[in-house]
Amino acid sequence: MTSPLLPADPSSIAGHRLLARLGAGGMGVVYLGRTEPGGTLVAVKVIQAEYASEPDFRARFRREVEAARRVDSPWTVPVTGADADADNPWLATAFVPGPSLAEAVAACGPLPVRSVRVLGKMLARALSAVHSAGLVHRDVKPGNVLLAVQGPRVIDFGIARSAEDTAITSADMIVGTPGFLSPEQAEARGAETGPPSDIFSLGCLLAYAATGRPPFGTGVVDALLYRTVHDAPDLEGIGGELAGLLEACLAKDPADRPTADELDVRLIEDAPEGSVDWLPDDVVRMIAERSAEMLALPDIEPTRAEAPSAEVPPSEVPPSRRTFLLAAGGVVLVAGGGVGAWAALRDDGTPAAGSPARTRDRTIGVQADLSGPGKAAGRAQEQGARLAVEQFNSRSGKPFRLELRALDDGGSPDRAPAVAKRFTADSAVLAVLGPTDDATARAVLPVYDESLLPLLAVSPGAMDLPKAENRSFLSARPGDAIVSVPLGVHPAGELGSVRPGLLQDRTAGQYGWESVTIANAGMRHFGRVPYPRVVPANLDDFEPVIADMLKAGVDAFSYCGYAEGAARFARDLAVAGFTGPRIAPQAVLDPRFLQLAGDAAEGWVLSSSFVDPAAVPAAKAFTTAFRKRYGAPPGYFAAEAYDTVNLVLQQLVAHHGQSRSLPDRKTLVALLRKSRYQGITKQYAFKPEDGRFIAGGVFYHRVEGGRFRYVGPAPSAW
Predict the structure, then answer these.
(1) Four-point Cα dihedral 582, 588, 594, 597, nearest 10
(2) What would be an example GO MF term here (predicted)?
């Protein structure tokens, strides 16, 4: 399906008149266009300029173009033009005006057995052409197969590569779509991901076409990966010869799978090029309707009247950048100086007589868990934010006055949207800090987006929160995946571990999977092959796993999970007599780890997105003021909330100085997303398109004497 062009979209690309948008992602936009002259419909993929400036990414795109051009098959989509060296690299392919297999099955249900067999034969021939060109597709899935009048077409060679190529797409990265990838992909065995991997994915695709469900189920990513590697596929309802053929395709050992040519021979069906007779009537009707819809497009789709997204002026671009790509998208890491203008305004001044004329009081909101399981972090954030507002209001010569309003959502995703609506309904509220955790943040994003009220998340770190469609969101900390970088760097790069152990606790779900994926990539970057183990959720006895890992020569452990599991693991490690390096992610930096692990916690290193302000010289004045105001030292995230409010104040003061007014909500979102600010805890900078935090901000803590001791900055890239 298409959507209208936006004001920022070009009207043409290299002789292609653009009609509409077909889709957009983190890396770029795919447009529907017509060639000039001729009027042939094409799909034009255009890469965003920020990625085009990265040599590695441009090289990757050049490989995509070369890969797509090398494949010659009636069952793939031909390249009609490309320029990998343009300011915004682009690739044009013939447009297929039909639904994807995923859309067809979702709308019309599973395909009949004969349809699945014919589909399998044609896709086997497509993969035969891919493999004959020396390539591996690596993302064969229902969404990458389009159903057209002339038959199915395999699309998207964006992560295809030569079987021998390991220079650009590293072997330690999980690439592909969980649920439709091979065991070798699931375990990031990059060097083993050859043509048999595509056959496994094709088996998953055909099983989905026949049953309407993926053969390894659905759910969180780590569960899908585990089942792909260890469990038998679910082929219930598929009988006869087709079931046996799919079992062969889904063999765990790549050597046991048929080749694409062998699969073509074993599927004794006609492959009717130029016909839809092999598909059921409702799918044929869907193809016809989609084709008619596309062919009826006017020459130029009207541009939607929306303001373009703010761009970062050259003066705001960070002086240096380091980028690494995750399977789910790019994460930009920034290092560099630049002190925010508001930093010079912070002090503990007293109110002066005769305050200047000012605008009506406006409000900074804090939505937090003040009474539930995350109340320690929520209260710390509320206190840090309130201190920042009180200090601002106490200054002489301030251009306006602010109030701070805190609302408790109890850490409940069910309660959180109602709290958010109270803030969005109040026109005096300029921005909100919060919520406290990932689940409540996901629950309130639609509410804040609807009113474009800026939402700055101080503690949530899930990688799915900063997205282009979340128009009002800013992440005031690095994401959980970035905070997990030290889990690979510390043992392999800093300590020189020869055989690091990597333990994923499935209790932690997506969080554990993200952590283990990044740790694995970091270890392999330093030439270390980790010894990985995945343990079931809520495992009580780690001793057999530890014994196995120590027998394998493991000399350092990276634990990827939550505090309770880490405590059990720590105790069993201590019983085994292991005292070497042990590291875990931020979720383990929790008082429960110290309480449950006892002496076994000593020496553990934890990575985090927050500091202990009492141990940071730049935060000395803050720590003193906090103790004076609240009678206790600041908790975790208090200083980060203080910094985040001052970041907002920097933009409010600057805008007021230029226009003698405060910005509206939409303007403030744009100002914040292109801002840079040097706080007392770290530097703040954001990706303007989605509010992603891009300025490092990862730290080490170590357990010493039964407490967490702040050590200092940790790496956010390798």
Answers:
(1) -60
(2) ATP binding
Nearest to 583 by CA among 558, 562, 608, 610: 558
Query: Do 652 and 400 meet the contact criterion of CB atoms below 8 Å apart?
Result: yes
**Start-to-end C-alpha separation, the chain:** 40
Active site residues: 139
Tell me the per-residue pLDDT of 45-57, one tens digit each, with 9 for 90 and over.
887 766 666 777 7
How do the domains of the chain map onto residue ranges?
101-294, 340-348+366-461+638-686, 482-608+702-713
**45 labeled part of a ligand binding site:** yes
Q: Strand, coil or helix: what is 251?
A: coil
Topology (CATH) of 101-294: Transferase(Phosphotransferase); domain 1 (1.10.510)
Q: Compute how many other C-beta atoms are within 10 angstroms of the C-beta atom of residue 289.
A: 12
DSSP-derived pairing of the beta strands 429-433 and 362-368: parallel
Query: What integer best gives the mean pLDDT of the chain?
Result: 84
Beta strands in 483-530 (DSSP E): 500-505
Helical H runs in 316-425?
375-393, 416-424
Alpha-carbon span 509 to 219, nearest angstrom = 10
Q: Which residue has the higher pLDDT, 223 or 608?
A: 608
Contact 276, 287 (CB under 8 A): yes
Q: Which amino acid is at 679?
A: G
Question: Using one digit for the tens of pLDDT, what is the confidence trace for 46-86?
Answer: 877 666 667 777 777 787 677 778 787 888 888 888 888 88
Residue 431 tokens read as 């921005």
